[in-house]
Amino acid sequence: MSFKVPVKRIITKEHLDDFTNSTAYDDYTNYILRLNDAVKNTKISADVNVSENVEGILKVLTTLSKWVDEIPPTENAKSRFGNPAFRDFYDKVEKNFDDLFCDILPEAALKEVSVYFIESFGNRRRIDYGTGHEANFMAYLLCLEKLNVLTKEDDQAVVLRIFVAYISLMRKLQFEYWLEPAGSHGVWGLDDYHFLPFLFGSSQLFDHKYIRPKSIHDQEVVDEFSKDYMYLACIQFINAVKTTASLRWHSPMLDDISACKVWTKVNQGMIKMYKAEVLGKLPIMQHFMFGSLIYFEGGTEQAADSHDDCGHVHASPTASAGNKEGVFALGQEYPDCCGIPVPSAIAAAGLKNHEKAGPRPIPFD
What we know:
Elements: E1 7-8, H1 13-20, H2 23-38, H3 52-70, H4 85-101, H5 110-119, E2 128-129, H6 131-146, H7 155-177, E3 180-181, H8 196-204, H9 219-225, H10 230-241, H11 247-250, H12 252-257, H13 263-277, H14 282-285, E4 289-290, H15 345-350
């Protein structure tokens, strides 16, 4: 097989439409759905099959967690934006990828797979993180599936061991380096950074006899069961870092979802929402990359060269007199996130350690 370093191919809404009708889109979404089904009614602590390759990936993530400890944040107490020490961590992962995975991946595939893995920790220049980076981690796992490094028998361990370890590492990065949310709206009212823990987490609770969607408002339930269920772990995280007291105020969508009677409906809604609000959004999918393992022939391979400093391709009014409708030449108008640095709520919460009066509120709480 001929491997290829992944490149960005999506610039316009038309390109995105082509992608959502492509084999690449089906491969990715079907993999997410398969993993979702694999963890229905299953706790994180459940006894699942952990293969040698799964164990190897977990060791890599443990190594990266140790690197965070070895790369302390730069002293920057007056700022609640991303800490530049994150770039040192990012560079170390990039430099050492081949050594980390030489015993797990075929040598010929290292360069292709490395792009997804490295990008899954956030944007080096902007020091931010969002659902697009999370999607890169799932793309990395999909590549391992296509290379037979992971198999269907590993599905439960992929979610309950590898993905959980990845989320734990990302929380550590978010806390240590105050990664900014990639976009001024967070993840459309869910967590500022992640989406998939809610999707997989609602599957874990699919037919739970006692814990209901409304249970997220019961702090005792959240604290007791957060170690076993990703959904509740996310609620615990949000409650810990937001400066206002109620989900109704800082996470209205989660508050609305809690009115559902059963987790089945929540899980179905999460799947639809992920397709619409992550895979269906141009500002996110402009960053997604395609190679030989996740192959998409649509769009244009020059997409990566067309991105502005904020990381998106933007439209510019064409100067052609023949452009009667005044439409944009390509791309899109500036999305809301562009030009608006978003302070980390984690950073605001962190100031509790330095200010007796408590954290300063931020405008996105």
